[in-house]
Amino acid sequence: MRPDTPAEHIAEAERLIRTATRYPEDQEPLLLQAAAHLELADARERASTLYDQLLAGSPADPHLIKALQAANLWEYGHEAEARALISGIRTAAPADPAPWEVIAESLEAHDELEASLDCFNEAATLLVADAAPLTPATTALLTGRHRVRRLLGLPHDDWDMVADTRHIGPIPLDELHDPKRIWALGSDDPAELRAEIARLRAELGDRRAALSRPFPVAMLHWPERELDELVTAYPTLAAEYPSHDAHLAHIEASLRALAASGTTNLGIVTGSVPSYEAFAASEKTSPASPSLLAEYATTLAARGKADTWPPTSTGPCWCGSTKPYPECHGGPTAA
After folding, report:
1. Domain extent listing, the chain
2. 42 Cβ partners below 8 Å, 6+ apart?
3. How far apart are CA 76 and CA 298, in angstroms?
4. Whether pTM exceeds 0.70
């Protein structure tokens, strides 16, 4: 069950911090996720302390950490520090889209639309090459740029057209980014105002969840031998896994459904019984508890153990067979 209340977010952050102490080699993604939960609980000073802790070491992605730190600082009154961090990131011109998106959206959130657009333009010029295919991260940059340009009333350009064609949601980008939806917040009609606030909150929640998740939404995969050992040792889990074939089909079907709904950054983590038992012990929970399976998958993904889904069209299937993915679970009827 996902955290919802501030207390639940605090509890999840503390669990991640404890996990980071047990797995220091995976400290960075775990503490980033903990900081995101603290921000959602409005414990922004504690989140800032975690960012400082990461930056004091030798983080793998310092620009992203500084960008998240800047966004967090600005939200609780440290605007000057936030601006200094944003300026430093722009000067460094990182080759990763994520820091650019975070600082551009932070500027946008504080109504600095021209500065936000400048960030998006700098990032797109640096990272979007004519000959190279777009990735989900660079697509997100063009989508954010599209939104800010709509808010500024600028006409579509070539990159806006690319963003339109790459958008897979049920609502076209032009409608989604229509400035009139923002202006509706000034309406005198309480029903219209409540409806617009609800829509904006839903969109903001989706964006924050995507940005604060430094690892994929991952499905847990058990190789056949491991699954047999698991359900033999813990019969209460047999209801979760009626057969190995059904388990594999469920993974593929679930990932396809998530992709169809617009979820990106999908992955698969492979479990083993010894690893699962060690995780259960660290959580002081019985391995026989079905609710532990999702936490185990999330922790493996946070530790960088996820393989990207879907595999390439020429790559082997994720299930471990020797067949190419399109001839195995990637086939039209596999799921």
Report:
1. 217-327
2. 6
3. 29
4. no
